[in-house]
Amino acid sequence: MPATIAVVGTGYVGLTTGAYLAHLGHRVICADVVADKVERLSRGELPIVESGLDELVTEGLATQRLSFVLGAAGAVADAEFVFLCVPTPQGEDGSADLSYVRQAARDIAGHLTPECIVINKSTVPVGSTRVVEEAIGRDDVFVVSNPEFLREGSAVHDCLHPDRIVIGSDDQAVAMRVAGLFEALRAPLVITDPASAETIKYASNAFLATKVSFVNALANVCEAVGADVNEVVLGMGHDRRIGFEFLKPGPGWGGSCFPKDTRAMVRIAEDAGYDFGLLRGVIAVNDEQYERMVEKVEHMVGGSLDGCTVAAWGLTFKARTDDLRDSPAIEVIRRLQGRGAVVRAYDPTVKATAAGGAAAARLAGIEVGADPYAVCEGADVAVVLTEWDELRWLDFAKVAELMAEPRIVDTRNLLDAPLLRRLGFAYRGVGRMG
Ligand SMILES: NC(=O)c1ccc[n+]([C@@H]2O[C@H](COP(=O)([O-])OP(=O)(O)OC[C@H]3O[C@@H](n4cnc5c(N)ncnc54)[C@H](O)[C@@H]3O)[C@@H](O)[C@H]2O)c1
Prior knowledge:
Helices cover about 40% and strands about 15% of the residues. It has 16 helices and 14 strands. The strands form 3 sheets. Strands 3-2-1-4-5-6 form a 6-stranded parallel sheet, with helices on both faces. A 6-stranded parallel sheet has the order 11-10-9-12-13-14. Helix 1 packs across helix 3 (about 55-65). The radius of gyration is 23 Å and the shape is globular. The site of nicotinamide-adenine-dinucleotide has 28 residues, from helix 1, strand 2 and helix 5.
C-alpha cells in the first residue's frame, strides 16, 4: 500500500531513500535546511554524484510522488512515516554527535500526526531511539531504528537490492508497519530490538574496516616476504568462510562512515566498560597505511620529496562518488605536501572551479587539474589514489612523455604493471614486488 512519507535530510542517504521510496510508489516529501539544495532538487538538479539517482529523482518529480521543501516541519504534516537521515559526525571524544538528530526531532515534534512512526536511519549509538523519543516528547508517536547499509557509488542499487533490512522496535506491530514500506524489495528482514539494530550498523562497519585493515597489514607482510597479496587473497577467498569481498589492499579506508563509526564503536564499548583493543588496532593499522603510501612515493623518487612534483590521480575516497569526506587520497596528499612535495591532482568528479563550500575547504592548497594528462606535465612521479576505471585506459606512452621521470606508485593495484614496465616506467603497487 502506498504510504505518505517524509524524509528529513537530503544527503547521500536521505535523497536516495526519498527517491527510491517514491519509485516504489510511495508519496514522499524530502526536507533539508539548505535552501539552495532544496531549490536545485526541486528543479531536478542533483547536488551529488550517484549512479541512477538522477533518473529516480526525475521520475519522482514527473509523477509528483517526490517533492522537496525547506525545513523538516513543512514535510511531516501529513506523513505516516518520517525518516531521519541527518548527519551524525564524530564528536570531540570520538563518540557520535547527536545534535543534528536531536534538532531534527525537535523540528518535527509539534507537527507530527498521531500514530506517526519516526524512523531513524542515521547511524547512531545504542540508546538513540530513546534520545529521539525524548526530543519528540510525545506518547502518540512511535520511534524505530532502521539503519542504512548503502554504499556510496551504488546507493540506488543497494537500496533497491538490499542484503537485508534491519528494523529495531520494541513494538512488533509498529515494526511490521515499517516493514510494509519495503515489501516490494523482497529482502531478508531482521526485526529486532532498538539496541541490537543500532549495534548491527556499527558492528557491520567495524567488521568491514577490520577486513580492509587486515588485507592492508597482510600486504605489508607480502612485500616483506616476497609474496603477491593479490595471489594470496585469491587463494584465501575461495574458502567460503572468508570470501573475496572487501579484501583489496589500498591506501587505507576512509569516507564519511568508517572513520567515525569505528571510533564511535570503540567509544561505545569503552563507555560500557570493554576495551575494544582489536578495533583500536584496526584503526592504528589504517593510520600506518597512509604513511606507508607516502613512504612508497618517497622511495620511488629517491628518498626525498622536497621540491618534487607529484601527479595525484584521484581525490574521492573511492571511485564512482564525488565524496571527499575523510578521503584517504586527500590524507596521503596532505602528507606528501607536508614533506615538501608539490601536488597536482586530477579526479573525474572534482573540478577546481566547481568545488564550493566544504569541498573547497577539503581541497585548499591542492591544485586540481582538468585532465589526467595535464597534471603529469613535468611530474617526478604519478600516484594512483582512487580506483577510477578510466585511469586503467590512459595513453601511458603519452603520460611517460609528459613526465619528468616515468614513475608510478599505484596504491590501488589498478594498473597493468607489465605493460607499464614495457613502456619504461618504474612501477610500484601494494603488497607485491611487481
Ligand atoms: N553516506 C553513506 O554512505 C551512509 C551510509 C549509511 C549510513 N549513513 C549515515 O546516514 C546519516 C546521513 O549520512 P549522509 O551521508 O546522507 O549525510 P549528508 O551529510 O550527505 O546529508 C545530511 C543532510 O541532512 C541535512 N540536515 C541536517 N540537519 C537537518 C535538519 N534539522 N532538517 C533537515 N535537514 C537537515 C543536511 O543539510 C544534509 O543535506 C549519517 O548518520 C551517516 O552515518 C551514511
